Amino acid sequence: MSISALKEDGTRVIGMLMNDSEWQEIEKLSKSRRLLMPQSTKVAIAKTRRGKLITRYFSHLPGEGDCARNNQGSIESIHHLHWKLEIYKALKEEGYDVMIECGNKAWVADVLVRFGDLRNPIAIEIQHSKQSAQETINRIASFSLGLRKA
Q1: Which parts of the chain sit beneath pLDDT 50?
Q2: Could you tell me if 47 and 97 lie in one domain?
Q3: pTM (predicted TM-score)
Q4: Pair (84, 48) in one structural domain
Q5: Is residue 148 domain-resident?
């Protein structure tokens, strides 16, 4: 599961930030297999979960992968997804150049942001579960490919 997907032109869309008419257009693109998952670039399926809150998200076709798994293979919780989105929105509202669920094949940052004149973006990772100090060190090390560690 992912809260973002890519259109054919490379534009990133975030389901939970869309109004109903925008989401209907995304669902049409999804049905015609014209959306891609951000990291695997495999077909993305637009989905809606209804409950206390309506959650709009994207998933792979069955058997093709799981973007809700982080770099270490764990499923991201609803709390993790919520804070990822809230941090993204807050930075965007402040005018920063910010991306969500962005990276490369080696790593994916929850939020990637450029501050002012800094040459490299800063990766922001949300940590909602318990982890050892060594796990934290390992995760930080995975971002060393051209990024500043914060």
Answers
A1: 68-73, 146-150
A2: no
A3: 0.71
A4: no
A5: no
Do you know the residue count of the chain? 150
**CB-side exposure of 138: number of CA atoms within 13 Å?**
7
- Which amino acid is it at 12? R
Q: Quote the distance between the C-alpha of residue 116 and its chain's center.
A: 22
HSE-CB for 114 with a 13 A CA cutoff: 8
Say how many domains are in the chain. 2
Instruction: State both tokens at 75.
Output: 């499923």
Between CA 52 and CA 49 the distance in angstroms is 10
CA 144 remoteness from chain centre? 19
Q: How far, CA to CA in Å, does 23 sit from each of 20, 71, 83? A: 5, 28, 21
Asked if 147 contacts 102 with a C-beta cutoff of 8 angstroms, the reply is no
Residue 16 belongs to domain spanning: 4-60
Distance CA 70, CA 61 (A): 18
Q: What is the pLDDT of residue 41?
A: 78
- Whether residue 37 is contained in a domain is answered as yes
69 within a domain of the structure (yes/no): no
User: Does residue 132 lie in a domain region?
Assistant: yes
**pLDDT at residue number 59:** 86
pLDDT for 39 equals 76
